[in-house]
Every structure is written in structure tokens, then in C-alpha cells.
């Protein structure tokens, strides 16, 4: 074996370990006469292999997030030929989808990536007056303000009502939990042509010999079922970590407790990069790498374990107050505050714009954190 003073885990949350649905005996994939494949295995195929796999076959895609939508779109494209079959998406939980980063002609970043816009959203370990401000502004920001404004555009731009795909929760809850998906071009045009169908499965589903059966008795025939059901990033870590630390991967909030999204307070001499999400995961991970480099160079010291655990608990509380999908470590609605903390630790400026007007109203992006 090899001995190191410090280990950085950059294995990421996605890939390697698929999340598989659990079924009662006699109702799982074993009874299905067709093919069952997780999106993880689908991604390993070449373009020619995917077309050959899906063309002319009755396909069911389980899921309604980015991987599921992309997979259904590719299935529809493969079946734009004589004898092609429609693809059915099995949708259990609805989420808001976005056709582009423009809302009523305005840049999307204007709504969530400026200091002024993030002022009204919950952030970790905020004081009494900020908490009061968030509670007072909640009806304006969440229901009658930004969220409703974006929802009105999406309901106008996309045929969500036509296909029964309008979520019953505010848009901000998907954004705050990093579950907003960008649609492939012309996705709903495929649906209008009958190449993509949507079947709600809110109460659950199981396999049958000839396809899938919803809990309400609805049957959907299939030759091929894709499981776009996500990944078990935490299980991947459990396989790598030594036994004393495996039970520490998940905290009370169901999230991995990471200070600055990088350091587990109870696992010494180890860091984790790529386990915190935002609207720009590459930017978020790059800032954490820079912060971690500063820590290892001795430019600052970590707080006490108690202080770090308190900070992590504050992030979980902020998520819980913002979205029902709080079991994901997502910093989208307080990303600037998060970056400010890392910049302060490094001794860098937290205010990165040239003047106070830009500081309040101009969106923050990766260029603002370019090293001089």
C-alpha cells in the first residue's frame, strides 16, 4: 500500500453505482421478457449501437430529469423512420424544465445570480434580521414574484398543460435543489408528432411480462425499459472509505456533511471535490479546488469540528426552508455567499465587481473569480 499525508476524492456524485428501483417479489425485471438497461450502461454505447438498440422497438424510459429527457429524445430521433415506435416516459415526480437560459427575453442569470436577487433567499447561518427579511419577502419572491414570472413564461412557451406536465410546486424549489433540466432542441415537437408520450406514475409501478404496470392498473407495453433513475454517489464513497468512516458519509439531513463543500469535519486528512451542486458545477468545483489548495498551503486553518458541523447544519436548514427536495447539497440560491466565504478564507476580495451598481445588479460568473 501507499502512504499519503492527505487524500482528495474526486470521484464525483454521478456514474459507477446506479440507483435501482426496488420491487416486491415477482414484480421486478426478472419477470419482464424484454431488455432492461440503466442509463449508466446506455451511455457506454456508441451512437450506432444506440440507434440499433431503439429503432422499431417499444421503449419505456423511467424518469423525468435530464438523463431521462435526453434518452427519450434520442429514442424519438432513432424512430423517425417507417415502422418506428413511440417512446413512453414514465413520470413519477414532475419537475420544471427550461428550453433555454432566457426568460421573456431576459437572461436567466438576472433572476438568481446577482447579489440583489440572492438577498431574499435563505442562506446558511444567517442572523435574525436576515431570517426575518426572508420570511417577509417570501410571498413576493416565491409566489408572486420571480418564481411566478418564470413559471408564466414556461407555461406559455412549453405545452406543459397539454401533456399534464405542470409541477404543483414553485420553480424556485427545483432551482434551489439543482433539479432544473434544460430541454433538448425540439423535444416537444417530437411529442407533438407522437414520437414521445408521457405517462404519469405518481403512485408507483412494477414490471410485467410484456412491459410495465402502474399501480392504478394501467399497462404499458414495452420491448425495452430504460431506468434513468439516477446514481448512488454516497454508496460509491462507502466502497472506498475505510470502515471507521463509512457510516459518516450521510449526516442527519441525508446530505454528506461537507464544510465549504469539501471537508468532512469527522474524517481527517481527506477532502471531497465534486459532491456539491450548483447551476454551474464546473465553476463550483474549481473554486473548491482553489480553496483546498490554499488550505494545504497553510494560508488559513480550519475552524473547530464543532464550528464546521454547525456550518454544515446551517446549510441543511437553509435547504430545508427553501425546497421540499432538500436532500441534495445544492448552493444555487446562495452561491455568491458561498463563494464569499471561500474568498475570505483565502484572503481574497469578496466584492469582485468594479462598482456598487454592478455589485448589486450584475450577475456573478466564473470570470469574476479569475486569478490575477
From TrEMBL:
Domain of life per record: Eukaryota
EC class of the enzyme, as a word? oxidoreductase
What name does UniProt use for this protein?
A: Flavin-containing monooxygenase
> Any idea which UniProt keywords this protein has?
FAD, Flavoprotein, Monooxygenase, NADP, Oxidoreductase
Per its UniProt record, the required cofactor names are: FAD
Instruction: List, alphabetically, the InterPro entries matched.
Output: FAD/NAD-bd_sf, Flavin_mOase, Flavin_mOase-like, FMO-like
Which Pfam family would be a valid example here? FMO-like
Which Gene3D superfamilies would you find in this protein's record?
A: FAD/NAD(P)-binding domain
Q: Which organism is it from?
A: Aegilops tauschii subsp. strangulata
Q: So what family is this one in? A: Belongs to the FMO family.
Amino acid at each position: 500500500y501507499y502512504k499519503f499525508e492527505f487524500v482528495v476524492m474526486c470521484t464525483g456524485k454521478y456514474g459507477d453505482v446506479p440507483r435501482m428501483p426496488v420491487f416486491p417479489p415477482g414484480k421486478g425485471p426478472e419477470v419482464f421478457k424484454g431488455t432492461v438497461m440503466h442509463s449508466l450502461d446506455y451511455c457506454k454505447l456508441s451512437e450506432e449501437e444506440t440507434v440499433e438498440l431503439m429503432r422499431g422497438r417499444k421503449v419505456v424510459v423511467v424518469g423525468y430529469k435530464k438523463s431521462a429527457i435526453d434518452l427519450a429524445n434520442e429514442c424519438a430521433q432513432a424512430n423517425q423512420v417507417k415502422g418506428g415506435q413511440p417512446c413512453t416516459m414514465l413520470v413519477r415526480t414532475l419537475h420544471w424544465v427550461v428550453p433555454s437560459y432566457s426568460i421573456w427575453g431576459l437572461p436567466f442569470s438576472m433572476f438568481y445570480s446577482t447579489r440583489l436577487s440572492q438577498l431574499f433567499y435563505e442562506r446558511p447561518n444567517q442572523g435574525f434580521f436576515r431570517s426575518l427579511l426572508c420570511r417577509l419577502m417570501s410571498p413576493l419572491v416565491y409566489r408572486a414574484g420571480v418564481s411566478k414570472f418564470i413559471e408564466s413564461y414556461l407555461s406559455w412557451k412549453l405545452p406543459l398543460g397539454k401533456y399534464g406536465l405542470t409541477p404543483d410546486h414553485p420553480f424556485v424549489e427545483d432551482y434551489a435543489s439543482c433539479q432544473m433540466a434544460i430541454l433538448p432542441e425540439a423535444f416537444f415537437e417530437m411529442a407533438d408528432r407522437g414520437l414521445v408520450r408521457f405517462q404519469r406514475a405518481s403512485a408507483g409501478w412494477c414490471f410485467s411480462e410484456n412491459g410495465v404496470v402502474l399501480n392504478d392498473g394501467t399497462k404499458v407495453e414495452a420491448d425495452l425499459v430504460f431506468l434513468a433513475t439516477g446514481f448512488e454517489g454516497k454508496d460509491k464513497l462507502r466502497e472506498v472509505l475505510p470502515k471507521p468512516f463509512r457510516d459518516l458519509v450521510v449526516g442527519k439531513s441525508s446530505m454528506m456533511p461537507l464544510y465549504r463543500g469539501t471537508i468532512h469535519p469527522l474524517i481527517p486528512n481527506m477532502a471531497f471535490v465534486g459532491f456539491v451542486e450548483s447551476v454551474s458545477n464546473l465553476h463550483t468545483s474549481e473554486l473548491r479546488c482553489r480553496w483546498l489548495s490554499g488550505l494545504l498551503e497553510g494560508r488559513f486553518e480550519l475552524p473547530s469540528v464543532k464550528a464546521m458541523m454547525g456550518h454544515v447544519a446551517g446549510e441543511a436548514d437553509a435547504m430545508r426552508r427553501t425546497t421540499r427536495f432538500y436532500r441534495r447539497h445544492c448552493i444555487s440560491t446562495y452561491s455568491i455567499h458561498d463563494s464569499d466565504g471561500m474568498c475570505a478564507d483565502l484572503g481574497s476580495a469578496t466584492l469582485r465587481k468594479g462598482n456598487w451598481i454592478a455589485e448589486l445588479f450584475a450577475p456573478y460568473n466564473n470570470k469574476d473569480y479569475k486569478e490575477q
